[in-house]
Amino acid sequence: MDDTQEIEPLGVTTASETGRSLSGGIALYIHIPFCETKCPYCDFNTYAGINHLIPSYMDALSNELRVWASALDHPRVNTVFLGGGTPSMLSPKQMDSLMSLIHTEFAVQTDAEISAEVNPDDVTLQRITGFREAGLNRIGMGVQSFFDPELQLLGRRHDVEQALKAFEAIQHAGITNISMDLMYGLPHQTIDSWKRNIEGVITAAPQHISAYALTLEPETPMAQHVAKGSLPEQDPDLAADMYEWTSTVLAKAGYHNYEISNWALPGRESKHNITYWHNLPYLGVGPGAHSFLGGYRFANGKSPVTYMAKVNAWGTAPVDLETLLRENPGYVEDIEPMDAQTEMADSLIMGLRLAKGIRNSDFRARFGLNLHEAYGDAIKETISLGLLKSNGMWPEATIQLTERGKLLANEVFVRFLGD
Ligand code: SF4
Questions:
Q1: CA separation, residue 137 to residues 80, 92, 114, 126, 205 (Å)
Q2: Which residue has the higher pLDDT, 340 or 269?
Q3: In contact, 305 and 55? CB cutoff 8 Å
Q4: What domains can be seen in the chain, in order of their start residue?
Q5: Which of 87, 118, 329, 391 is most exposed, with the fewest beta carbons within 10 Å of its own?
């Protein structure tokens, strides 16, 4: 389509071909909702005290995977990501059974990135060796801090020494693609303690680093402590200083800030998360897991117990995606048909998180119109505010967040939502 062709009015079209088709394969997310203890800042859909349900949960998960594989005609899977919760609470045998089922039911790419999140206190050489033998090739470890008082504040069960030993064990188990997660902007955290964190992670030298600002949801115990005054308020200016310092120092250490909160050595970016940031199809299984498939967004209900009951009652008769969503025999909730306007806004907001930004020609190939035609006012305004920049010559130009835009990303995104 060229500039002179007519553009369909926004809001009346359905999802793009890219948003509907599974021919490029999917990313598969598997939710493991169990934790030994609930951290006081965490609002993820995870639960402590129900570990006895793990074996029956794994059966339900297998049933859900079978139903979806059949409904989607056993699609190609480019990446698998086990998140939670605490996937490292699974035994190597449970991991092996799960991965065997996935390989039977889906066309898993031979070079698929297969990741699991682990907590340092669960890591043993034997467990991670078992995970690697089951097919895992990437591990993300929730270190959160290289400073023991901060780990205590966060209610973590490990200390720094344990995290470093766990990192060694993961390496000895033969995993060569390891990510460490850190959190900044904590109550009581100072720029000096944060520098200690970054020095710690650079010394450990994982292939990938995620550093997220702590966001306190009001219902969490830590937010309530802040509200009562027993913990200090977070300081957004200090958090911004920490972020800027992090970017500078990690760049010097060879880590590329490929997404607002993620840094990687060359070639070690998270392929699974890049699927989300490119707004490409993914299937999420397990309670609370979200999916974007076949022109729909949908999510499973959150309760693990209801999930197991409903998913186990799903029939095995083959059905297609439309029938499954229409008749909804399982635990799928919040089904939202994707229209072109929503898909475009989602693609903009997620794509701008990436350092490479969004290329007009890619946007046009997917949606049939230029960025300026869809978002001219928002682009002009955010460029004039110094939050966005445009590189190259149109129509091949790219739009990217500036350094200031990375700090104020929500200010940018809200303007694209309202355009
Ligand atoms: S271990 Fe992770 S998922 Fe579990 S409660 Fe703590 S932060 Fe949440």
A1: 10, 14, 5, 15, 17
A2: 269
A3: no
A4: 17-277 (3.20.20.70), 357-417 (no CATH)
A5: 391
Strand-pair category, 138-144 with 178-184: parallel
Residues facing 337 on adjacent strands: 296
What pLDDT, on a 0 to 100 scale, did the predictor assign at position 13? 63
Q: From residue 124, how far is each of 84, 271, 281 by CA, in Å? A: 19, 26, 34
Distance CA 319, CA 323 (A): 6
Joined together, the tokens standing for residue 196 give 């200690």
Backbone angles phi, psi at 355, to 5 degrees: -60, -35
Which residue's CA is the closest to the ligand 1 atom numbered 8?
42
Specify the pLDDT at position 417. Answer: 85
What residue's CA is closest to ligand 1, atom 2? 85
* For the CA of 41, the nearest atom of ligand 1: 7
Question: Tens of pLDDT along 172-195?
Answer: 999 999 999 999 999 999 999 999
**What is the rounded end-to-end Cα distance, in angstroms, of the chain?**
23
% of the chain with per-residue pLDDT over 90: 85
Closest-lying ligand 1 atom to the alpha carbon of residue 117? 2
Cis check: omega of the bond before 140, within 30 degrees of 0: no
Residue from 31, 32, 45, 46 to probe ligand 1 pocket by mutation (most atoms less than 8 Å from CB): 46
Write the CB contacts of 105 (distance below 8 Å, at least 6 apart in sequence).
65, 66, 69, 70, 74
Residue of 44, 51, 154 best suited for mutating to test ligand 1, as the one with most atoms within 8 Å of CB: 44
The SS3 assignment for 112 reads: strand
For residue 304, say if its preceding peptide bond is cis, omega within 30 degrees of 0: no
For residue 119, give the ligand 1 atom closest to its CA.
1
Q: How far apart are CA 123 and CA 127, in angstroms?
A: 7
